[in-house]
């Protein structure tokens, strides 16, 4: 074996040993790498979510609906007597304000005054006739007394002659004359008694006639008074239909007067909103007093009106939800028509940053046709919760973090979306949630966006938002 072949064999062994060593190194490296990676990668942390606490609502439940102002009363005044309009006050024109008792229209009263004068004379004559009859009755009663005395005398005479005729002291003709005189006295007494009875009957007739004349006189005087038409209440003339010098018939419309002492606001409530009113009434009902089933619970309200161009300023009036406007639900809207009464439409309060004093453009009173917002203030027997609007998920559900674990609470009874001012002065939307029917408790923290895919039972970390 020469030197060259020995060198080749040595090189082959060295190459083989190098390949074997490289393979062993690669093998050992591949085995250790997963262990090193496993030890190098820490356990994944739970996702971080932003949470806010559930708060208790410390105020009343305020339900806001829209409404339109309508008159409290519209008085249609018509002529109660016929005649010519001889006077019309300038205040009796459409749009004018009048006070109670102001004379607005006078109808010619002369015909009715003459009739009243004639009936007054007839009444005096009827009284004189009754006085005359009283005198006649008194005289007749005196004549009856005399006739009775005369009859007694004649009877005594007949009795005396009856005793003498047996002794034949007097003749039969004298006895007959005495009896005839007694009969004449009796006839006179009966005639006077009949006359007295007729006088009493005539007195009743004359008294009835006098009362009839007195009634006619009262009617005539009432007609005279009805010729002057005055304002029955403080209000505004919204329609005038009669002009001066025109002739009006009895019952002809003259003008329409709107009572401004109060106004009403028409609104509509859903059955869900009435539910809270009925709950309030149920909590205040005692065992002895049962409210009428067809009466709406009397509830204080605030009526709000806003003018275009005056942002941040509101005009408010206080009123009360007083009654249903009819009975039952509207078949089209499925709502219940109701009426709100504002007892003082001129008592306006200004609310807002710029409402320091009444501006020149402020509405002086609440009048018909104004579109307003109505805020019903309802006292609730059970507390309510405030849940931020973004936290409420489809299906009326919220994610709640309890002991670092997510829980899905649903369904919530959402009452109303309200604006609530934060400590920074910003307005945030919150849902009012009924506490009695939800699984929420005060202090629960609900998850608000943004967040990824969540599932019940997932461990999470809170970002510490107060």
Descriptive account of the structure:
Helix content is 35%, strand content 31%. With 466 residues, it is of the alpha+beta class. The chain has four domains: 1-41; 50-58 and 383-462, conserved putative lor/sdh protein from methanococcus maripaludis s2 fold (Beta Barrel), CATH 2.40.420; 111-226; 261-378, Elongation Factor Tu (Ef-tu), domain 3 (Beta Barrel). The protein has a six-stranded antiparallel β-barrel. Helix 2 (110-165) runs antiparallel to helix 3. The chain is elongated. It starts with a helix and ends with a strand. 19% of the residues are buried. The mean pLDDT is 82.
Provide the fold topology.
Elements (H helix, E strand, L loop, with lengths): L2 H38 L7 E6 L1 E3 L3 E18 L4 E6 L8 E2 L4 E5 L2 H56 L6 H55 L1 E3 L4 E6 L6 E2 L4 E17 L1 H14 L14 E7 L7 E12 L11 E7 L6 E4 L18 E8 L5 E5 L9 E5 L2 E5 L4 E8 L5 E8 L10 E4 L12 E2 L4
Parallel strand pairs: 1-22
Antiparallel strand pairs: 1-21, 2-16, 3-10, 3-15, 4-6, 4-9, 5-8, 6-7, 8-10, 10-13, 11-12, 11-15, 12-13, 12-14, 16-20, 17-18, 17-21, 19-20
Helix pairs in contact: 2-3
């Amino acid at each position: 074996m020469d030197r060259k072949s020995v060198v080749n064999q040595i090189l082959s062994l060295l190459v083989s040993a190098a390949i074997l060593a490289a393979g062993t190194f690669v093998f050992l490296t591949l085995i250790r790498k997963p262990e090193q990676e496993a030890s190098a990668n820490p356990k994944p942390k739970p996702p971080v979510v932003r949470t806010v606490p559930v708060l208790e609502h410390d105020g009343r439940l305020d339900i806001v609906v829209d409404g339109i102002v309508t008159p409290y009363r519209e008085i249609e005044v018509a002529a109660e007597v016929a005649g010519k309009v001889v006077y019309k006050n300038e205040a009796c024109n459409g749009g004018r304000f009048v006070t109670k008792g102001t004379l607005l229209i006078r109808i010619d009263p002369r015909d009715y005054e003459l009739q009243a004068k004639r009936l007054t004379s007839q009444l005096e004559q009827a009284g004189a006739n009754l006085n005359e009859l009283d005198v006649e009755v008194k005289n007749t009663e005196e004549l009856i007394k005399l006739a009775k005395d005369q009859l007694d005398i004649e009877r005594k005479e007949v009795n005396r002659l009856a005793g003498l005729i047996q002794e034949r002291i007097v003749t039969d003709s004298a006895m007959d004359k005495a009896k005839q005189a007694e009969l004449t006295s009796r006839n006179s007494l009966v005639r006077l008694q009949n006359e007295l009875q007729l006088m009493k009957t005539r007195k009743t007739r004359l008294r009835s006639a006098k009362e009839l004349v007195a009634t006619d006189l009262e009617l005539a005087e009432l007609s005279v008074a009805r010729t002057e038409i005055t304002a029955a209440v403080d209000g505004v003339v919204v329609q005038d239909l009669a002009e001066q010098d025109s002739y009006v018939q009895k019952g002809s419309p003259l003008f329409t007067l709107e009572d401004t002492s109060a106004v009403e606001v028409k609104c509509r409530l859903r059955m869900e909103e009435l539910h809270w009113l009925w709950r309030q009434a149920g909590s205040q009902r005692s065992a002895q007093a049962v409210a009428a089933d067809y009466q709406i619970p009397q509830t204080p309200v605030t009526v709000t009106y806003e003018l275009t161009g005056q942002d941040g300023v509101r005009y408010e009036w206080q009123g009360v939800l007083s009654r249903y406007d009819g009975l039952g639900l509207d078949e089209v809207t499925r709502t219940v028509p109701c009426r709100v009464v504002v007892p003082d439409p001129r008592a306006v309060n200004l609310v807002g940053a710029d409402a320091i004093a009444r501006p020149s453009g402020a509405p002086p009173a609440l009048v018909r046709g104004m579109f307003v917002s109505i805020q019903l203030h309802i006292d609730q027997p059970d507390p309510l919760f405030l849940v931020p609007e973004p936290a409420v998920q489809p299906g009326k559900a919220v994610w709640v973090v309890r002991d670092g674990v997510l829980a899905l609470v649903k369904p919530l009874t959402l009452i109303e979306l309200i604006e609530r001012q934060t400590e920074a002065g910003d307005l945030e939307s919150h849902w009012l949630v009924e506490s009695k029917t939800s699984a929420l408790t005060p202090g629960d923290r609900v998850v608000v966006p943004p967040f990824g895919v969540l599932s019940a039972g997932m461990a999470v970390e809170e970002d510490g938002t107060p």
